[in-house]
Fold:
Amino acid sequence: MHPAFSVIFFTVMSGMGYGLAFFLGLALVDPDTLAGKAAHVTALVMIALGLVSSTFHLGNPQRAWRAFSQWRSSWLSREGVMAIVTFVPLTLNAALAVFFGTQNVWLGLAGSVCAVATVYCTAMIYASLRTVDAWHTWKTPACYIAFAFAGGALWTLVFTLLSGRGEPFLPGLLALLGIAVAWACKANWLASMRAHVSASTPETATGLGHLGAVRLLERPHATENYLTREMGFKIARKHAEKLRGISVLLSFVVPALCVALAFPGLLIQGASPWLALLAGAAVLSHAAGMFVERWLFFAEARHAITNYYEA
Structure:
């Protein structure tokens, strides 16, 4: 499918924002420090930027508010509702941190739970689509949540080191664990996608399978239309493999190496400028890799409608 930058930006930024908010709700960063206050603001800004960017993909962005009315049947609507609900505890806790240097335990826990629920709803927008076999699996929300966990843990490590308070060992350990779990989930998802035999074929798409094999004699029309542009996007296998290598390198290998190099310092001397620099490099690398990974997530997806257009 055609990778829209607005949706890619939305899923990457909001995922990291909710991941950071999850750990902030568990009080892993001291709110009575400049870095702690900045962490709460950063989480809200990333989430807000992601949500605003998601409206750019709509035909009529000014009607985005109507999406909230279909929460009984639409995961897109549920994601929108959960995003608004989640803002309540996150904003209140951020206000406590910024103005009073503290946070409420129950607001923090509520924000953490709601953050996970919102990421799950975002992932289910894609996992609920039966027309895209690669997405229609429980492994899709597992990957989204794992990526949010990894990104949030890396951001938490950065702010913990910048605050100069607390033990950065735990955020460092969670960052390594998050990177490993995210890679395991993604590797499993890729293996399933490559081994999966699509349930959608020209025979099932046309309903003529009972007559035998179906082949395309002629395309429905000679020129491109919305479906061929949005649903029939293709990427060459060699390009996909090259980009996959880049995403693995930036999302997993570099961040893991940066945190691993910093780990002895986290155990011995706690916070220091060079440790914060390593953690910052890990965050930037992971974010860049996530943009590539999420681009591939859309580019490699094959919609069932392509059965009507492919020879």
About this structure: Residues 5-308 form a domain with the Formate dehydrogenase/DMSO reductase fold fold (CATH 1.20.1630.10). The chain has one domain: 5-308.
